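#struct-pred

JT: dropping the chains for the assembly here, can someone run the whole complex?
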Amino acid sequence: MDRKKAVILLSGGLDSATALAVAADKGFACYALSFAYGQRHDVEIRAAEKIAAAFTCIEHRTVNIDLSQWGGSALTSADIDVPKDRTDGEMAEGIPVTYVPARNTVFLSFAVAWAEVIGAKDIFIGVNSIDYSGYPDCRPEFIRAFEECARLGTKAADEGWTFTIHTPLQKLGKEEIIKLGVSLGVNYSMTHSCYDPSPDGLACGHCDSCELRRKGFTEAGIPDPTIYA
Amino acid sequence: MDRKKAVILLSGGLDSATALAVAADKGFACYALSFAYGQRHDVEIRAAEKIAAAFTCIEHRTVNIDLSQWGGSALTSADIDVPKDRTDGEMAEGIPVTYVPARNTVFLSFAVAWAEVIGAKDIFIGVNSIDYSGYPDCRPEFIRAFEECARLGTKAADEGWTFTIHTPLQKLGKEEIIKLGVSLGVNYSMTHSCYDPSPDGLACGHCDSCELRRKGFTEAGIPDPTIYA
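RK: done, full complex below.
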């Protein structure tokens, strides 16, 4: 029997690599989808390529969409600095400037488009609500709303089925994500998390994403393979 | 007082030009958004430029997103022919091959992204459920689902407001749309509807979109300014 197909949103970071590992472990034929969206840390795209190859994805596509044309985020505009060395308290205070307006809505819309074309009914996204940056498009209510939207905005509703958007990391802390990924064979040295890498692609060690990643490895008791600048 | 901003999805066709006219008439500061998505009829992009200029949009952006990379539609794949000379009965039979998977989901996701960046809470889209091609992403339930998605996937929910997705043409027949547009100053000779234009950009006169357009002008009793090949 043919394996069920799934589209996996793969940024190249720690979370999405783990989400891919979960999808592969569940036996899905994996179609990985990445975006060159004008992000400051486009080094993550090369990371995504390595990870997709490591998990023998059937296909890996990197779609070009220039969100830097309107900016509005520290990740897509050179005019907004990436915050560094924030305390846990500061991180808990609302939506940070690294939030990219509607990013996951855009990413998921492409995932649904590709899924419909290849006949996949399953989509994986590595959002989580525990050790994250407070982005609105990572919350479970958003994911459920998008799932409904995907059903109604495609042939699914007419054909009587629905897309399932899997969020296997939704309720996991970073250290749990890392332990899960290691158990599934993720080589985290391939992944890139830093929002503001050096010109040669090394992690800054001080942005929210680096802080969360470093803390995760420490708490998991697993050596952090990241090379910091 | 500053005018409220609205993002208007502007394909360059008859419907979206009318939706823009409605938004302008309501006094919105209009930000028009078009897509070069690998469509067979990319001549519509030049039409959109003319229309945006005619309605003195504050800004008009054409975003490049290549949906032809995975195809799956007669509009984005050279391998699928655009159906011609279909009867009303044939047009009523389900979703046609000109349906572009998840297109309006993708378009609306970019509209929300841009809207959030510029501080617009209103989005206009020229979908309608009467004289249309049976696309799932034109139905009111989809639009309402997307509205909720936009609220939850952006800062809106945290800040206690919501995006409004205006669909002023939802319940209008093509002839009513044309009459409305004419009353609001739309010059339909600027618009392009044909799915399968000749190499020099002339309408084929036989695809569903040409048929619906021609019928609309006839029923409205207004001369059709379209030049057919």
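JT: nice. The mean pLDDT of chain B is 96. The beta strands of chain B are 5-9, 29-36, 59-64, 122-124, 164-166.
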